[in-house]
Design brief:
- The chain is an alpha/beta fold.
- About 35% of the residues lie in helices and about 20% in strands.
- The protein folds into 2 domains: about 240 residues, P-loop containing nucleotide triphosphate hydrolases (Rossmann fold, 3-Layer(aba) Sandwich), CATH 3.40.50; about 60 residues.
- An 8-stranded mixed beta sheet has the order 5-6-7-3-8-9-11-10, sandwiched between helices. Strands 2-1-4 form a 3-stranded antiparallel beta sheet.
- β6, α7 and β7 form a beta-alpha-beta unit.
- It is globular, with a radius of gyration of 21 Å.
- Bound molecules: adenosine-5'-triphosphate and magnesium ion.
- Adenosine-5'-triphosphate binds next to β2 and α1.
- Adenosine-5'-triphosphate (ATP) binds next to β2 and α1.
- GO terms for molecular function: ATP binding.
Amino acid sequence: METILDVQNLTIEFPTETRVVRAVKDVSFQIQKGESLGIVGESGSGKSTIAFGLFNSVPDPGRISGGKVHFFGGPNFLDIKGETRRKFYWSKISMVFQASQNTLNPLLRICKQVDDIAHAHRLAKNKARAKAFELFDMMHLDGNRVMNSFPHELSGGMKQRVSIGLALLLDPEIIVLDEPTTALDVISQASVLKILNRIRKEREISLIFITHDISVISEVVDSVMVMYAGRVVEQGPAKQVMRYPSHPYTRGLIRSIPPLVGEVDYTKALKGSPVNLNNIPSGCPFQSRCELRIPTCSEIEPPRVQLDNSVEVACHLAKMEATSQG
Ligand SMILES: Nc1ncnc2c1ncn2[C@@H]1O[C@H](COP(=O)(O)OP(=O)(O)OP(=O)(O)O)[C@@H](O)[C@H]1O
Ligand SMILES: [Mg+2]
């Protein structure tokens, strides 16, 4: 299998007046051709920062303080600058930003935005427009109407689908979608998920699907990475992680999914709020919210251990269970 993305020990920091906040710490993952990854975690866990890190475009004052990003077995992308980097972006990899429905240019009709992308990448305008029609059709959008509309004339769900269509315009091999369904009602959400699955199958494209909503993740990805306080706490095949979550945080996230029928059982839901990145205690960052914590949790940060089902987890209890079984 061809590895199309290899991320090793990505670490990203934001200096503040008093200290340096490590928003992403030692994140590593690989994606094989056609495979998709979900990144899940609560607000502030570092999901969007990872996405920006992949493209070496972390917003100021952030900086990548460590790690490597290799696309298609090439050199470290974090060392590549200027025009080469810009060309690579969109044509090989592309990103649909968080709240991307608001990142469309409000002053330009969609067709002009298509022309701009074509111009920037020296693609014939008519070819780009024909391609956009095809993609919008695939997104169940009326191409004529959409192309001649300003963004404010489209609904949120339509704008989200337009953003995904534009990101696919240059046939990228990987597309990063940051919270693509979060601002949508359930019907539009289901429609976007269905479209993403179709794109995955028909175009053999890889998705990196970022969301705080673990309930949608298993529908579109092969593997999942659960983030807490900038660290990966659990990582592995999505089906395994969803069926047999090993980290108490993952279990809490899954238990917090409201049931389709009946009442929400708040006693099972995840309690407390995410740890303050300015003040992470020593040991496990999740300790203050963990009902299973043991004294070691406040002393030593849990190392990652590989379980039998190909899942990796950073929890002292999982390590003990793995050791006692092995
Ligand atoms: N521009 C910035 N300046 C300072 N700190 C930042 C900045 N952007 C992010 N951070 C820090 O990085 C952390 C992670 O932010 P990030 O946006 O990656 O989280 P997220 O998981 O995408 O959250 P959400 O689900 O709300 O989108 C934040 O909690 C914050 O401490
Ligand atoms: Mg985000």
